[in-house]
Amino acid sequence: MKIVSYNVNGLRSAVSKGLLDWVAEAAPDVLCLQEIKASREAMDVSGFEKLGYQAYLHPAQKPGYSGVATFTKVAPKAVIHGCGQSCYDDEGRVLRLDFEDVSVLNTYMPSGTSGPERQAFKVEWLHFFRRYVAQLRADGSTPPLLIGGDFNCCQTAIDLHNPKANQNSPGYTPEERQWFKDFLNDGLVDTFRHHHGEATGHYSWWSYRAGSRKRNVGWRLDHWLADAALQPRLAGAGLLPDVVHSDHCPAWVEVQ
């Protein structure tokens, strides 16, 4: 099963830039999108359905903001919209699809870049999300988790171009780095690092300013984390920086 995560920074905008043509060519079994920025009523998913996908949406209540969507060619056993906390579910942060032997959790984490209040909200979310995932992993009815999406966090200095200048920037604060370390230590595998080791210069987001993408001045904010039980089944993982419909690029993982 090949699974792709992609923050499209507005689904309708990405479709207008040729997203559907790329999906038809790449043909992932499951496609997890973040920051769809459209309500259920305003979104036309017929293009995905023509490609053989079932569509599941969890938009934000606020128009033109946040939201996640998952498109799958494999029929899920269960679909769970949200995480049970209205302050996060109103923003469309989590959508989970359970398949026979894996649970794909699509998440769009807060960025914290708009000011101290939202950064505090983000930190609260991170700690909630860690507890939420721990509860899911402890629940014997949930298959092993594969957690993908825009985490809006980097783990270590090799995950962004200029770590020294961003020591306290949202996405790379000491508290966020410690959270990521603790989260992985709970029994999760960073699928990218599992396959690529300490390779540098691999990013999934670039600012629109100053030709950042062309110069590869970026951050690795988009991740696939796997339950340690899935590690023997991880056939590959990577980023697709040459795919351009957004300020992010797709992140993919393949599970046997």
From TrEMBL:
Probably binds two magnesium or manganese ions per subunit. Mg(2+) binds at residues 7, 35, 150, 152, 247-248. Residues 4-243 form the Endonuclease/exonuclease/phosphatase domain. The active site is at residues 108, 150, 248. The record marks 248 as: Interaction with DNA substrate. The record marks 222 as: Important for catalytic activity. Keywords: Hydrolase, Magnesium, Manganese, Metal-binding. GO terms for biological process: base-excision repair. InterPro entries: AP_endonuc_1 (IPR004808), AP_endonuclease_F1_BS (IPR020847), AP_endonuclease_F1_CS (IPR020848), Endo/exonu/phosph_ase_sf (IPR036691), Endo/exonuclease/phosphatase (IPR005135). Its cofactor is Mg(2+); Mn(2+). GO terms for molecular function: DNA binding; DNA-(apurinic or apyrimidinic site) endonuclease activity; double-stranded DNA 3'-5' DNA exonuclease activity; metal ion binding; phosphoric diester hydrolase activity. The record marks 152 as: Transition state stabilizer. Its EC number is 3.1.11.2. It comes from the Bacteria. PANTHER family: AP ENDONUCLEASE, DNA-(APURINIC OR APYRIMIDINIC SITE) ENDONUCLEASE. Belongs to the DNA repair enzymes AP/ExoA family. This is Exodeoxyribonuclease III. It comes from Hymenobacter properus. The lineage of its organism: Bacteria, Pseudomonadati, Bacteroidota, Cytophagia, Cytophagales. The gene is xth.
